[in-house]
Design a protein that fits this description.
Layout (H helix, E strand, L loop, with lengths): L1 H22 L8 H19 L4 H14 L3 H10 L5 H13 L8 H8 L4 H14 L7 H7 L5 H14 L2 H20 L1
Helix pairs in contact: 2-3, 2-5, 3-5, 4-5, 5-7, 6-7, 7-9, 8-9, 9-10
């Protein structure tokens, strides 16, 4: 009887290996529309995470945008054009563009518009992002140079650092002129 039981189990196990592939779920090919819809939903989730209250989801979204590289630029600039988004979503989108480095160069003009806002956070974060983009943000030199005369020390420092990172001749001259002016002010005190 024990021998019969073992034989039944043995046959059952062997049948699993023989029959299992026939019953296994066959992979389905997703249509192009399904893949596009999945990607759209993923991007919507990433944008929503830019506005999350916790650091983790925000950082994960930024990291994913960073991995996308230049492909992320149109999505992030669309967020910046969306007036219905919260301030923190815009700030995080600007910073995410900066984290792309030179791959963020196509987002420079969108970031420049935020330099002109009457908001310390937007000006400073935009300057930081432009500095991270580096030489590819050369179109921002003039507006960044104007921020050297802002009221906020944070904005001034961010603009100065960005100009140094952009490093064009015009950017370096703006910083040198500003430094010289600051030295003259110090001497007069």
């Amino acid at each position: 009887m024990a021998m019969c039981f073992r034989l039944c189990i043995y046959l059952f196990v062997i049948s699993l290996f023989i029959l299992e592939p026939a019953y296994a779920a066959k992979p389905t090919r997703k249509s192009r529309e399904e893949l596009q819809l999945m990607e759209k939903r993923r991007l919507e989730m990433l944008v929503n995470n830019l506005g999350a209250g916790n650091y983790g989801p925000v950082e994960n979204a930024m990291r994913e945008f960073e991995e996308m590289g230049e492909e992320a630029v149109p999505h992030l600039t669309a967020v910046l054009r969306d007036k219905d988004q919260e301030k923190k979503v815009h700030l995080n989108a600007i910073y995410a563009l900066g984290r792309l480095g030179k791959d963020g160069r196509r987002g420079v003009s969108a970031i420049i518009t935020y330099l002109r806002r009457n908001d310390e956070d937007f000006k400073a974060v935009s300057a930081i992002a432009l500095g991270k983009i580096g030489k590819s943000a050369r179109d921002a030199v003039v507006p960044l140079s104007q921020l050297l005369f802002d009221e906020s020390p944070w904005v001034i420092k961010s603009a100065r650092d960005a100009l140094l990172k952009i490093g064009t001749e015009q950017a370096q001259k703006s910083v040198a002129d500003w430094d010289e002016l600051q030295n003259k002010i110090e001497i007069r005190r």
